Amino acid sequence: MLFHHLNRSLLLLFLLIGQVSLLFSQSANATEQGDQYYLQAKLAFRNRQVDSFILYMDVALQYYRKDENWNQVFSCYQGLSNFYRRQGDFARSLIYADSLIMLTRGKIEDEEDRYDGLGHAYLLKGVLNNELGYLEEAIANYRRAIVEKEKMEKVDSQALAKSWNNLAIAHSDLGDYEQALKCYQRAFAFLPIDGGWEGKATIWNNIGHIYFLLDQPDSAIPYFLRAYRLFQTDPEGAISSSLQYAGNYINFCNNLGKAYLKRKQYDSSYLYLAEALRLEQPSQNDDKLSLSYQLLGKLRVDQGLYQEGLDLLNKSLLKAVAFYQSPHPRIGVCHLEIGRAHLERAQWEKARTHLTQAWENLLKNSAQVDSLGFPDLIDHVFSKIDMLKVAHAFGELGLQQYHGTGKDHFLREALRYFHFADDLIVSMRQSYLGEESKHYLAERSDRIYGEAIEAALAYYRSSGDRAALAEAFFFMERNRASSLMESRMDKEARMFSNIRASEKGQLLLSEESRLKRELAAYRRLLFESESKPDAGRSQRISHLQGQIFEKDRRFDEIRTELEKSFPDYYQLKYSSQVVTLEEVRQRLGDGQLLLEYHFAPQRLWALALTADAEWVEEIPMGGPEKETIREFIEEAHGSSFDLDPFLSFEQFVSSASKTYDLLLRKILAERADKTEQILIVPDGMLHFLPFAALLTDRPSDSVPDYS
């Protein structure tokens, strides 16, 4: 380091000695001398001579200031700010951006030049704010840039398009998709009709991405296609000659492949993902091509082509390992997909190996884990949604191994992962949910809880451990409670509390909502920064951690105030407690029986509770049994009564008796004389079944003649 500073000082000394006569020469114009050094600085930058660039710029600035050539001073400040931004020194870059603003306001006299300069300065400052994670400040500076540029007589279309585009990205990062779409439309209006093809393609792709995040692949695909087709024509031959353009093209192909895969249009998905792989070059765009291989591998696994799918997923892993440093979430996701593919084929040890690697790559280096390897804080994982997928896969692995071997220790292992999955689901639902997380939870949480219930009940039947029955009941109640998505919980909490009638309550609700959205955005940016090896990584992470700390602190203050001033709202919104098995039993009176059903693959579980006992029945539930239940539901709702009343009645009697035998007879056999009231909690199709219409016995075929 000392040698580095000496070299830099000596270089400056030689420059100053060699040019001192020119600096004070009466025959040479100071601006002309500044121009020479400015040109030398640009050449040094192109040749990546960092120290020379800074020194030449310093000397050029001295000449321009001497001549009071403020326009050229502006150019130097702008160049230095951009240079330090590329170096990842955002703090110094911001200093020069602020200097640009002060210089323009104080020294630039021409009105048009002043508007132009301020527009560029605010745009640059907005970009820096965005990269540091100060999204609100970025939005404010982008809007200032737009205001200044719109004052100009000569419209600067390029700067306005860039400002609106950057503003859209910042709104999108904050989860304000409606505002982002409006800003993209404004950006597009400033692009030239002929040309600007790269900007158009980027905006179309970004709009498509928003619709994809909103789980609207049908709306996303037309925009992805526009971006893809514009790049496919390659108007300037840029794809083949530029690594960056090739990377964008691969992104567009990946987005189309992902959207068609979401719609299960496998042929179309394969077409675009294969097109992305056509551009594969050694050690180029490995991060993007890793995703191409991953999506293509997942596609083949979904189609049942496991070996081809596994080969592609392994190539995805190799690309990710080549590009990222382990541990890294992208490497973790690759291992997850390989593990799930092995799980589909019941290759348990291979599945376990890759799921373990996925788990380790999704844990942050700072994570403290317990003796079982679970992080003490859920925030110590890179991505909650990916970690939830891994925990679910481990739970499924334990269930599969139990059914394959009959060894119940696999069930205990599965239950540990299902409990961790439950913690993740509760944590995600109590915070701000991005659209992807919302849709994943809507699709998968019922399945996760269902498998957790099955594991707990199977362990109870196998071991007789009463704690497992309490676990099963816990998961049943948690599943019921968690079926209210976060937005619905919020709506009902507001509806059934007095918070809406209070001005203070409305202000707290507004700030609560804003902070949750911003915290989600900053945590996502932190996740991306921790995953991205670039020059500004450490500064960005430090700033984002500071932002998250401050917003977390304020969010805790808001929650404390809500709990104190509006306890009804707080309890409805944030409480994750569910009723326990013991609490239910204590509330059951003599003669009451609570019967809670749960559907699992090929079986129906029935949990029976009384004030002094509990037991579980496992009811086979294949095609014939489900058909019996469906027939009774149809008969009970009278779908065929009008066609043939006598035949329909006979069918009803038969179906009602068979359904009772299937669902209740064995369960009630030993306590029929002690049971006065049955409380039933149905599941699945049983919600449509009128239990009160079931027949304990078939009526006698002979009818007495009372005539």
Polypeptide structure, described:
With 707 residues, this protein is mainly alpha-helical. Among the domains are: 363-477; 484-574; 581-693, 2-Layer Sandwich (Nucleotidyltransferase, domain 5). 72% of the residues lie in helices and 4% in strands. The protein has helices spanning 2-23, 30-46, 50-66, 70-87, 90-107, 111-132, 135-150, 157-173, 177-189, 197-213, 217-233, 238-241, 243-262, 266-277, 286-302, 306-323, 329-344, 348-362, 384-405, 409-430, 435-463, 466-482, 486-495, 503-531, 537-565, 567-574, 581-587, 623-636, 645-668, and strands at 592-600, 603-609, 614-620, 677-681. It has a 4-stranded mixed sheet with strand order 3-2-1-4, with helices on both faces. The longest helix is centred in the middle third of the chain and has 29 residues, at 435-463. Residues 1-27 have low confidence and may be disordered.
